[in-house]
Specification:
The complex is a heterodimer of chains A (566) and B (173). By secondary structure, chain A is α+β, with helices and mostly antiparallel strands. Chain A folds into three domains: 200 residues, Alpha-Beta Complex (Sulfite Reductase Hemoprotein, domain 2); 158 residues, Sulfite Reductase Hemoprotein, domain 1 (2-Layer Sandwich), CATH 3.30.413.10; 144 residues, Sulfite Reductase Hemoprotein, domain 1 (2-Layer Sandwich), CATH 3.30.413.10. Chain A is 37% helix and 17% strand. In chain A, a hairpin with a 5-residue loop joins strand 8 and strand 9. In chain A, helix 1 packs antiparallel against helix 2, helix 3 runs antiparallel to helix 12 and helix 16 packs across helix 18. Chain A is globular. The N terminus of chain A is likely disordered. Chain B is α/β, with parallel strands linked by helices. Chain B has two domains: 127 residues, Alpha-Beta Barrel (TIM Barrel); 33 residues, no CATH class. Chain B is 21% helix and 15% strand. A seven-stranded mixed β-sheet of chain B has the order 2-1-7-6-5-4-3. The longest helix of chain B has 12 residues. The C terminus of chain B is likely disordered. Classes of the chains: A alpha+beta (566), B alpha/beta (173). The interface between A and B is large, with 48 and 47 residues.
Chain lengths: 566, 173
């Protein structure tokens, strides 16, 4: 057994960072006081609370806590568990944007919650509202075997730059930026307002491929590359130029047409890029150019932890893999390659059937914090698939980690499989939703509870959103389910063929036909799977079969003959 | 006339907002000769392009940017452009739906005067000009990002002037 290791490989605040977050807590405390005293109207308070992650939901306010680029320490996770117990109902929901949401806090407690978060270098700044939101990135950043550039330091520099940016506090609409430094795009950079892909040129210099105007929501669009190689030192000046063009010219008359993707579409990619370049030429040599010294200062926080040299533990692992089917299944699905010999990254699953996807109890958070300290340098990540990742696990610790995480309900061996459902909180909690999403996820998980069958079906992303805002990313699910409202009743529209773009290009799913009642959904998924199993070639995944054959055979099976004619 | 906040202090307004010229009015009258000492103020709306008054700025004593709704943030970029791109040095005033909780960002974006909506108390509001004592990013009020100040504070860091926007040669691309 190894000793407890807890050197945090993450950005740590200095006195200046602490001061900014503390001043924000006091600012919001006063804003809340003025609202409760009637000095601020509902309309005046709304954008202020939203910029602090506070929504008013069906039952209570919802508070969204930022987990910058998905990176969190054991110490911080214990604080989240404590807040869940003290101010909420003992659990939290990890979202597709790598954040944590509390569904039951009281408004008057929120300033106190923010003060508690500040003690562990956390906040809820800009987790909603029409501003630059939490920056997201690859949950395997720093350990991925296919990584070209570790995106974490630049993600932190961008986080700081975007925090309370005075010019961009009232954008036409929310604004999401994702960073990726690996060959596979695990951050969906083509589906964000801005996607930044770090690349190297022939001389080994680091640059950024800049993608603009992607997004899901009502009008899903794959983003466009507007610059192939931007020297990394100009990341902030270039993003500023993009945001200035958007802030001035993005539509504000219709919230459904206010995202940057609509502006890019209306102007045309070339014209939009030309305007950005013109703006950038005027500002590129500002003090916002990132000095090497600042990059080095931040990057030092993400230096590799004290890895041990590889030992000769292969035998024990091989023995365990051969001897225990349940362990080998978990190993196959939830354990991932690591750039360092002798180490692996591990997914702790928040997809246990019967529990809303992404939900974790305070007890589980505490257990995960313990596991992170014992097995992974006290640090973990939130994935956009709503699971938790221990990024630096010694191979010899895998059997023990598996036993402990299984005992805590965190070892569902379904990563990449149909039941690893990505799902928004839906109509059970969210006031925007047209339909419930969690019961649909549960019904599908119940239907597909045979592990052998699931593994035979193979890789399949299933995503559920309760409304067009697409928080469940249904557009990029191999199977995507969208809750729709038909004359006040909840219906579900199904699309197939979407892809996040992790292996290959991203793609948007196509709707297969008229929507279904909730009770029909397990059968619909069953029929889609049945079609695939009947038609697949030996090496084909579900998505490959859809790409090869199109929608027709799936439609025919799901709707029967009449729809095939229609 | 209601008081305004100017340069951090609450004081009596010496302008009649109704006398401000719209962009169209200014463009129609910009070539008129005006009597010595005439004060001219122009009022811009969110969609107005500040480039249209860029060559007139030394003739204007006041540029007011209107916020029909405080959540319409175009005026922030307009102010940044007037101050940085076009070099306007005169009074830049935020008018319309302007409240206490916008003042900090407005000031950072280059506004030095604020006419709050009539029901709002400028004395209480002025306190929010100092909501934050530190800022991560550069803007009009202080073009140096926090990281350049950190470097200046570092024991063996490079030396930067505290207010100027200059960057040492070696940091330029």
């Amino acid at each position: 057994m190894c000793a407890v290791r807890s050197i945090e490989v993450m950005y740590r605040y200095d006195a200046l960072d602490h001061q900014i977050v503390s001043e924000r807590v006091e600012q919001f405390r006063d804003q809340t006081r003025r609202y409760l005293a009637g000095e601020l109207t509902e309309d005046e308070f709304r954008p202020l609370r939203l910029q602090n992650g506070l929504y008013v939901q069906r039952h209570a306010p919802m508070l969204r806590v930022a987990i910058p680029y998905g990176l969190i320490s054991a110490r911080q996770l214990r604080k989240l568990a404590h807040i869940a117990r003290k101010y909420d109902r003992g659990y939290g929901h990890f979202s597709t944007r790598q954040n944590l949401q509390y569904n039951w806090p009281r408004l008057e407690h929120v300033p106190e919650i923010l003060a508690e978060l500040a003690t562990v270098e956390m906040h809820a700044i800009q987790t909603s509202g029409n501003c630059v939101r939490n920056i997201t990135t690859d949950h395997f950043a720093g350990v991925a075997h296919d990584e070209v550039v570790d995106p974490r330091a630049l993600a932190e520099i961008l986080r700081q730059w975007s925090t309370f940016h005075p010019e961009f506090a009232y954008l036409p609409r929310k604004f999401k930026i994702a960073l990726n430094g690996a060959k596979s795009d695990r951050a969906a950079t083509f589906l964000h307002d801005i996607g930044l892909n770090f690349v190297t040129d022939a001389a080994g210099e680091i640059g950024i491929r800049v993608i603009v105007g992607g997004g899901m929501g009502r009008t899903p669009i794959i983003g466009h590359v507007i610059r192939e190689f931007l020297p990394w030192q100009h990341m902030l000046t270039y993003v500023e130029a993009i945001l200035r063009v958007y802030n001035r010219h993005g539509r504000r008359d219709n919230i459904y047409k206010a995202r940057i993707k609509i502006l890019v579409k209306a102007l045309g990619v070339e014209e939009f890029a030309r305007q950005v370049e013109t703006e950038w030429e005027a500002t590129r040599d500002s003090p916002s150019v990132i000095p090497q010294e600042e990059y080095d200062r931040v990057a030092a926080h993400f230096a590799p932890p004290g890895y041990e040299p590889p030992g000769d533990e292969d035998h024990a692992l091989a023995f365990q893999l051969a001897a225990d089917r349940a362990f080998s299944r978990w190993f196959e699905r939830n354990v991932h390659d690591h750039r360092r010999p002798g180490y692996r990254a591990v997914t702790l699953s928040l997809k246990k059937p019967g529990v809303p996807p992404g939900d974790a109890t305070a007890e589980q958070m505490d257990i995960v914090a313990d596991l992170a300290e014992r097995y992974s340098f006290g640090e973990l990540r939130v994935s956009h698939e709503q699971n938790l990742i221990l990024a630096d696990v010694r191979e010899r610790d895998l059997p023990e980690l598996w036993r402990r995480s299984r005992a805590a309900g965190l070892a569902t061996p379904s990563v990449g499989l149909l039941t690893n459902i990505v799902c928004c909180p839906g109509g059970d909690f969210c006031s925007l939703a047209n339909a419930k999403s969690i019961p649909i996820a549960e019904a599908i998980q119940r239907r597909f509870d045979d592990l052998d069958y699931l593994h035979d079906i193979g890789e399949l992303d299933l995503n559920i959103s309760g409304c067009m805002n697409s928080c469940g990313h249904h557009h990029v699910g191999h199977i995507g389910i969208l809750g729709v409202d038909k004359n006040g009743a909840e219906w579900y529209q199904v699309s197939i063929g979407g892809a996040q773009g992790i292996n290959g290009d991203p793609a948007l799913g196509q709707v297969i036909g008229p929507s279904f009642a909730a009770a029909e959904m397990p059968d619909v998924v069953d029929n889609l799977i049945g079609t695939y199993l009947g038609l697949r070639t030996a090496e084909e995944r579900f998505i490959d079969t859809v790409r090869r054959l199109g929608l027709a055979p799936f439609r025919q099976r799901v709707y029967g003959k009449e729809a095939a004619v229609a | 006339m209601p008081d305004i906040i100017r340069n951090g202090r609450v004081e009596a307004d010496d302008w009649d907002e109704s006398a401000l010229l719209t962009l169209a009015e200014w463009k129609a009258r910009r070539h008129e000769s005006m009597p010595e000492g005439t004060r001219v103020g122009v009022r811009l709306e969110p969609a107005d392009d500040p480039a249209e008054i860029a060559s007139d700025l030394d003739r204007l004593q006041l540029v007011a940017i209107n916020f029909p709704r405080f959540a319409d943030g175009r005026g922030y970029s307009c102010a940044v452009l007037l101050r940085t791109r076009y070099g306007y040095r005169g009074e830049l005033r935020a008018i319309g739906d302007v409240g206490r909780d916008q003042l900090f960002c407005l000031k950072r974006s280059g506004f030095d005067a604020f006419a709050l909506a009539p029901h709002r108390d400028p004395h209480a509001a002025a306190a929010s000009l100092g909501d934050f004592s530190l800022r991560y990013q550069g803007s009009v009020d202080d073009p140096l990002p926090l990281f350049r100040k950190r470097l200046a504070m570092a024991p063996r860091g490079m030396h930067f002037a505290s207010t100027a926007g200059a960057i040492p040669e070696e940091n330029l691309p």
